[in-house]
Amino acid sequence: MSARTEILNALQRSGYDEAGAAALLGRADKEPRDIEPDPDFRETLAGGHALIVEYGDCELIGSCQCGKRFGMTTPDASLDTFVPRWERHCMTEVPRG
């Protein structure tokens, strides 16, 4: 059993319904990994705004850790497809601490 499944089961035993438990865990995935993130390094997992690239059904999907989507591309394309959108997001859309 995965840790994620164990957490979801524990939340449900604590009174969350299945959708509520999944939503709470989803919110936690997007939060900074550091309790007090360094505002100078927000573009990391610890800072909450890391660039995430996932492999989908024969496509690459780019997003920010916070949930902002940057689109899709093919696996043979450059990952630079996502970088300008991610940089713009981090520089202009994410409030400075």
Verbal overview:
The chain is of the alpha+beta class. Helices cover 36% and strands 15% of the residues. The chain has helices at residues 3-13, 18-30, 83-93; strands at residues 51-55, 60-64, 69-73. The chain has a three-stranded antiparallel sheet with strand order 1-2-3, covered by helices on one side. Strand 2 (60-64) and strand 3 form a beta hairpin. The radius of gyration is 16 Å and the shape is flat. The termini are far apart. 11% of the residues are buried. The mean pLDDT is 91.
Concise account of the structure shown:
With 97 residues, this protein is an alpha+beta fold. It is built from three helices and three strands; from the N terminus they run ααβββα. The N and C termini lie far apart (38 Å).
- Range of helix content: 25-40%
* Molecular shape: flat
Order of helices and strands: HHEEEH
What integer is the average pLDDT?
Answer: 91
Q: Give Rg in angstroms.
A: 16 Å
User: What gap, in angstroms, lies between the N and C termini?
Assistant: 38 Å
Strand percent estimate: 15-25%
Q: Widest sheet: strand order?
A: 1-2-3
Instruction: Enumerate how many helices there are, as a single number.
Output: 3
State the total count of DSSP E strands. 3
**Global structural class:** alpha+beta
- In the predicted model, the low-confidence regions spanning at least 5 consecutive residues are none
What characterizes the major β-sheet?
Answer: 3 strands, antiparallel
